[in-house]
Design brief:
Aspartate Aminotransferase, domain 1, 2 domains, binds glutamine, alpha/beta, four-stranded antiparallel β-sheet, binds 4'-deoxy-4'-aminopyridoxal-5'-phosphate, 13 strands, Aspartate Aminotransferase, domain 2
Length: 383
């Protein structure tokens, strides 16, 4: 038989860096601070609720946009936090994690040749999703250590082909957050344009030092042109359940659902019912800012005497460390060296740029037990 001639639609994509580093960590039995996920359990109550719903027989397809009870609870949460009402019937969709929400939003809007502005370093799924849809990522680099957005550059790059701008606050991998001034700039720049904003807010509740999360939802002119994306994995320490949601004004959500229904159609039913109940306990998600701030502080204190320079983290569960005083190696090689020599895994930040600067930065996930963080810190201090 003649060999198949397959032309990948993503010829340059390798395996996700999170998978690569987690696998390397496992192979070398290293402490895995690379891929972002908690190593402590989620609430037993939540597990019990899922179980109860399964036993009750809630095991068939949920409605395409999500179970109404969960849509209602999400709507109430948003109203309480931002004093804005999203109608669960038409403006909220439960998704297979934030990843599917991002995919559906981009696919709903981006046509061949459309430009999408992306700020780098960027979470790994944005640009491949744009490219799969025939779009053109227009990258704007953010520079260490502040990783601020140059809004003048954004304004200069906008043209008739610009269809979308993707923002992410709190930001993975840098731990920076957008300010009110940033949001007002974005609002001003997009005013009177046809640009859609895709706002990745999965770390909405993981924000430190009394900073306030700046959601597109709080800015009426931005909210009117935005998809906002959230993840239950981050809220309740259940990244493996892959459930999230997207909110947007009716017209945008209509286009979104046309795609969502043909990607997954609908998401896990018993977990949605469980979340509908559990999400009513606002202390469960409002307490995670303090939980992770304590972990950040614990980790940063424990590596204070190491050779790493600490780049401040204002949110997410990631800490960037600059190793330029310790090694000349590039970040991928150095991350591999750390796994093999001291047994600590991290993410090389260059992998989240298309054209990486010569930074010597690694990302460490501190969503771990203090015992794990202490062990890792000791090893990092030994360098
Ligand atoms: N966006 C960002 C910035 C993330 O860090 C992640 C996952 N950590 C996601 C999206 C994907 O979230 P989910 O696992 O819910 O698909
Ligand atoms: N979002 C997680 C991180 O940044 C990983 C998710 C994934 O492995 N795709 O580490």
């Amino acid at each position: 038989m003649k060999g198949l001639n397959i032309e990948s639609k993503l010829p340059d994509a390798g395996t996700s860096i999170f998978t690569v580093m987690s696998k390397m960590a496992q192979e070398h039995n290293a402490i895995n601070l690379s891929q972002g996920f908690p190593d402590f359990p989620c609430s037993e109550d939540l597990v019990r609720l899922v179980n109860e719903n399964m036993v009750k027989g809630l095991n068939q397809y949920a409605p395409m946009a999500g179970v109404p009870e969960l849509g209602e609870t999400i709507s109430n949460k948003i109203e309480k936090l931002y004093e804005v009402i999203y109608d669960p019937e038409t403006e909220i969709t439960v998704t297979a994690g934030a990843t599917e929400a991002l995919y559906s939003a981009i696919s709903a809007i981006i046509h061949h040749g459309d430009e999408v502005i992306v700020f780098e370093p960027a979470y790994d799924c944005y640009t491949p999703t744009i490219e799969l849809n025939g779009g053109v990522p227009v990258r704007i680099r953010m520079n260490s250590p502040d990783f601020e957005i140059d809004w003048v550059m954004v304004e200069n790059l906008i043209n008739t082909k610009t269809k979308m701008i993707i923002i992410n606050t709190p930001h993975n991998p840098t731990g920076t957050i957008l300010s009110e001034k940033d949001m007002l700039e974005l609002q001003r720049i997009t005013d009177d344009t046809n640009i859609v904003v895709l706002s990745d807010e999965v770390y909405e509740h993981i924000i430190f030092d009394l900073n306030v999360h700046q959601s597109v939802i709080s800015y009426p002119n931005l909210a009117a042109r935005s998809f906002a994306v959230f993840s239950f994995g981050k809220l309740f320490h259940t990244t493996g359940w892959k459930l999230g949601y997207c909110v947007a004004p009716k017209e945008l959500m209509k286009a979104f659902r046309k795609v969502h229904q043909f990607i997954v159609f609908t998401c896990n039913t018993p977990i949605q019912y469980a979340l509908a109940e559990f999400l009513k306990k606002e202390e469960e998600y409002l307490s995670i800012a303090q939980l992770y701030q304590d972990k950040r502080d614990f980790f940063v204190d424990a590596i204070e005497d190491s050779g790493f320079k600490i780049i401040p983290s204002f949110g997410t569960y990631f800490q960037l460390l600059d190793y330029s005083d310790i090694s000349e190696e590039n970040d991928f090689d150095y991350a591999a060296t750390l796994i093999k020599t001291i047994g600590v895994a991290s993410i090389p930040v260059s992998s989240l740029y298309s054209d990486p600067p010569d930074n010597k930065l690694l990302r460490f996930c501190f969503a771990k037990s203090n015992e794990t963080l202490e062990k890792a810190a000791k090893k990092l201090c030994s360098l």
